[in-house]
Amino acid sequence: MKKILTLFAVVGLMAFTSCEGPEGPPGQDGSIPAEVYEVSNVNFTNTNNYNPVIALSPAILPSDMVLVYRLSGVDNGRDVWKLLPENYYLADGTLDFGFDYDFTISDVSIYMIGNDLGGVVSSFRLNQVIRIVIVPGYLTGKSVNKPDYSNYNEVIKRYNINDNNIKKIKL
């Protein structure tokens, strides 16, 4: 009986190892690097419902991780990037306004939340600079040494992104 089971196991193993499936789509073999897009002149106004949408090409894959950062200032000559979602509160602890985002395979939608978005000072609403980091799923893996995603510099270092090779988008 053991010999028959062993024979079936060997035949089954040979059958499965000799099978080939269809070739996968081009460019999805794990060789796509992480990318960064910088979008300047992003305005959050009543005209766009405080929700600019940024079209991206090539498509964002379902396994990709998308991180969105807003340039919040400059400190000692270095850009300060804040990871979205980003919220600001009133003195009593209630939400004043904030930024958040979602994405599809072809765009990233960045939107403001709050009660009186028109009353938010223009330095938070107009001429914003946004960076969108797309990290392919094969790079994120299940590593226990994940970067601090709130730290833009740590993310680009961890995923070996050349900060001088950012793709610029103008709205």
Structure summary:
The protein has four helices and nine strands.
Can you put this structure into words, describing what you see?
By secondary structure, this protein is α+β, with helices and mostly antiparallel strands. The chain has one domain. Helix content is 18%, strand content 36%. The protein has 4 helices and 9 strands; from the N terminus they run αβββββββαβααβ. The longest helix is centred in the first third of the chain and has 16 residues, at 2-17.
**Largest sheet geometry:** 5 strands, mixed
Task: Calculate Rg over CA atoms.
Answer: 23 Å
By DSSP, the count of extended strands is 9
On the 0 to 100 scale, the average pLDDT is 85
Number of helices: 4
Supply the number of structural domains.
1
Helix content: 10-25%
Task: State the secondary-structure class.
Answer: alpha+beta
The proportion of strand residues reads: 35-45%
The ordered H/E elements are HEEEEEEEHEHHE
- Taken from the alpha-carbon principal axes, the silhouette is globular
Largest sheet strand order: 4-3-8-1-9
**Kindly, what is the distance between the CA atoms of the first and last residues, rounded to a whole number of angstroms?**
72 Å
